[in-house]
Amino acid sequence: MKRVMIGIFAHPDDESFGPSGTLLKQVQAGTDVHLLLITDGEAGTNPHNAPNLAQIRLDEWARASQLIGATTTAAMHFPDGELSHSMHIAIGAALHAEMHRILERYNEPIELDIITFDQLGVTGHLDHIAASFSATHQFFSLKNDTPAGVTMGELWYFCLSQDHAPNKEWTDYYMPIGRDKHYINREINVRDVLPQKLAVMDAHQSQANDAEAQKQLGEELLARECFHIVR
Known about the structure:
It is a single chain. By secondary structure, this protein is α/β, with parallel strands linked by helices. It contains nine helices and seven strands. Strands 3-2-1-4-5-7-6 form a seven-stranded mixed beta sheet, sandwiched between helices. Strand 2, helix 3 and strand 3 (about 70-80) form a beta-alpha-beta unit. Helix 3 packs antiparallel against helix 7 (about 195-200). It is globular and about 45 Å long. It starts with a strand and ends with a strand.
């Protein structure tokens, strides 16, 4: 059975600074990876005061997605930094349409997984939380009304362990500390694709400061990607 994984993320670098190693390994194993992006990231870091940051970040996302080996990508263009409950229906409708477009590509039986950030948004960023909420809603909606030829697999929540995020102090975008061993029920070793993962991260040149901060974790931690899996 053909395996398909759909990633749902808020910002153009979320999958790259998050579970990119796992996505690379999925592609290597023959899984079709499709990436859905809710915002264009126009509220992100803009070190050169570019007037067209949204397009720059979309171009970086396209390059990163190509390096990952994504089968398709689609951006929803909702406003960065403003995802809210009032937008949930519109975001859900956009995701529903794109996901069914993806599923209609296949004339063979498929097993479908969805991957997103955990329900605390990894960093506490409200856009991340909104994306996770929407991805969760799509997963369980499909479980309740599964299209013909589709077998629902797993919902992958990417998270950080307490080794990755031991800091107990809260900041504007860093509310939760890392997850404990009781929450994490799958860990993927991505050491064999670490050079490719770093290249994916480096594709987001406008957000280089965030990439460098992640690299400070060191190779041992960058090679460990943690998840809470829901079936």
